[in-house]
Automatic annotation (TrEMBL):
Keyword hit for Nucleus: no
Pathway: Hormone biosynthesis; Plant hormone biosynthesis; gibberellin biosynthesis
Protein name: Isopenicillin N synthase
Record family assignment: Belongs to the iron/ascorbate-dependent oxidoreductase family. GA20OX subfamily.
InterPro entries: DIOX_N, IPNS-like_FE2OG_OXY, IPNS-like_sf, Iron_ascorbate_oxido_reductase, Oxoglu/Fe-dep_dioxygenase_dom
Keywords of the record: Iron, Metal-binding, Oxidoreductase
A biological-process GO annotation: gibberellin biosynthetic process
Cofactor(s), names only, from the UniProt record: L-ascorbate
Reaction catalysed by this enzyme: gibberellin A12 + 2 2-oxoglutarate + 3 O2 + H(+) = gibberellin A9 + 2 succinate + 3 CO2 + 2 H2O
Organism: Corchorus capsularis (Jute)
Keyword presence, Oxidoreductase: yes
PROSITE patterns per the UniProt record, alphabetical: FE2OG_OXY
Pfam families from the UniProt entry: 2OG-FeII_Oxy, DIOX_N
Length: 387
């Protein structure tokens, strides 16, 4: 049975090879895809009236943080950047970064390879089909996971751990065959760049929170168990009925998004939806639920969604930073005070991850529902769920 929001019961190096070398198929799809071009939208994709998209959302004003300040040797510039991060993360958890170190050619290749993959026959894509209860693989509209309010998107997700050599390459070769080795190398290198960037962002976040040990969060995520997700949002003839993905907060710690220039990302703040306008050369960063707990609620994991249009597909690459699965999420002692007492119980990332995969569809109340569930589990004698 598919979980409804509000419930938490137990339910279920780059070579010279060019991007166009990815194996292609003679036909676009050999089976009818879930996301067709017909005007009649299947009912499971239609959202309730109170959750339907708006296309005139005002622009969200978020700071653009120059990551070069960390190596500039200019303490005033670092302090100013940290102040901007602090202000944004206390309000809605979103900011952008520039001079982030991700090579534009690598990002372009990553987007081109995305085109090639999603253009394969459906039977080819299903070789890497994501299974129930897993985070990795291909999904078309989250079929089999949700029964209603389904997202208008296709995704391909990989696991990335910096201590496992060529993890992305080997995953794709094992699932799709030797022809996908170069495909894997592109995303392996992209993940490595994102991993390095995420540690720099965590260092800046530590500074912004005023920690005595400014490298605390950088060290906390030095070993991590993260995900890269390729997102394709096809055009829809009735975009006013569907959502690319519905309102949710990210369960992980930090999300770093590379998006094209189509637009569609919206953030809920001050009780209204605001659009995040793409800025060339920047990446969008947002706080996730795990880091909200790690900051003892000081930094916010905010609701966001994606709207689609009727003409142009939207593409993005989302890197989801998370700690090692068995690492305990406990805020630094300096962030727990009499004015800001402890907000969430200790937990491991694997526990929250599995909660959102098997028990609860991520929404605006994920962390509160999870905290309540953890407390209930702890009260049950001989319960090994949280071990």
């Amino acid at each position: 049975m598919v979980q409804r929001p509000g419930s938490y019961s137990n339910n279920p190096s780059m070579s010279d090879q060019k991007p166009n070398s990815l194996p292609t198929s003679g036909a676009k799809n050999d089976q009818q895809p879930v996301l067709g071009s017909e005007s009649n939208i299947p009912s499971q994709f239609i959202w309730p009236d109170h959750e339907k998209p708006c296309f005139d959302a005002p622009e969200l004003k978020i700071p653009i943080i120059d990551m070069a300040v960390l190596s500039s040797g200019d303490p005033l510039a670092v302090s100013k950047a940290a102040e901007l991060v602090n202000e944004a993360c206390k309000k809605h958890g979103f900011f952008m970064v520039s001079n982030h170190g991700i090579d534009s050619g690598l990002a372009d290749n990553a987007h081109e390879y995305m085109d090639k993959f999603f253009g394969l026959q459906l039977s080819e894509k299903q070789k890497v089909q994501r299974k129930a209860g897993e985070q990795y693989g291909y999904m078309n509209s989250y079929v089999g996971r949700y029964a209603s309010k389904m997202p208008w998107k296709e995704t391909l997700s990989f696991r990335y751990c910096p201590d496992v050599q060529d993890i992305v390459v080997e995953y794709l070769v094992n699932k799709m065959g030797e022809d996908f080795r170069q495909f894997g190398r592109i995303y392996q290198e992209y993940c490595e760049g994102m991993g390095k960037l995420s540690l720099g962002i965590m260092e800046l976040i530590g500074i912004s929170l005023g920690l005595d040990d400014q490298a605390f969060f950088r060290d906390f995520f030095q070993e991590n168990d993260s995900i890269l997700r390729l997102n394709l949002y096809p055009p829809c003839k009735n975009p006013d009925l569907v959502l690319g993905i519905g309102p949710h907060s990210d369960p992980n710690s930090l999300t770093i998004l590379h998006q094209d220039l189509v637009g569609g990302l919206q953030v809920l703040t001050d009780e209204n939806w605001h659009s995040v306008t793409p800025v060339p050369g920047t990446l969008v960063v947002n706080i996730g639920d795990t880091f909200m707990a790690l900051s003892n609620g000081i930094y916010k994991s905010c609701l966001h969604r994606v709207v689609v249009n009727n003409q142009t597909e939207r593409k993005s690459l989302a890197f989801f930073l998370s700690p090692k699965v068995d690492k305990h999420v406990t805020p630094p002692a300096s962030l727990v005070t009499s004015e800001n007492p402890r907000m969430y119980p200790d937990f491991t990332w694997v526990t929250l991850r599995d909660f959102t995969l098997k028990r609860y569809r991520p929404d605006m109340q994920t962390l509160d529902a999870f905290a309540k569930w953890v407390q209930e589990q702890e009260q049950e004698p001989n319960n090994k769920t949280l071990a």
